[in-house]
Amino acid sequence: MGDTKSISISRLIVVPALITLGVTILRLVGELSHWPSPFFNAHPGGGGAIVGISWLPIVFGPYFALKLSGAGEGAASVGKAIGFAFLSLAVFVLAGFWFGASVSHISYMTLLPLLLMLVAAFIPGIAWGALGNTLVAYAFAARIPVVVVMFFAMHGNGGAGWGTHYDGVPPAMAHIALAKRFLYGAVLPQMTMWIGWTAALGSLFGTIAAAIARRGKQPAPAAV
Q: What pLDDT digit, counting tens, does each position of 88-101 carry?
């Protein structure tokens, strides 16, 4: 690895972050224009829409992993990295079930599973620090613009919203004050849940891609 050089996280994530921002803007325009499903879904949560950024870690996780490996910043043990990626996803899923059981009423119990999902984002970095740090940086670069969009969407039309999934909230939050609705419906989920999702999913696909790439570079056994 003596002839390799480190790769800047900011340079590595800039193009994926811009692509992600483009998808976010496209989705907003599509929902405001009432473009058809399954490509767009303006209902609260927006689940199932093809145009969205939640699936992009499947693409950018391997991209980051292979770029880092090529720059000499691969995992010391790909097997260990895969194991911690699965652990991250498992923590995220368990916290997600906990969150689902507590989201019907807003309290500190709602915050705990969200924080646990954020913790899941940092687990992959235990085994592969470069990939873990890159995915966390990308996750924030992807989700901060969404928070900005949600701010304007929720405050639009005098607080009635734009009628997109960016301003849609669960029934338990529909009648609370706008500032609190923005905090609980936008800032907290985007800065915890979706950070964890991005890092966990990206690390899983990234470490698997790195393992396949490393296996492909192994020399064939010598003929006897």
A: 999 999 999 998 88
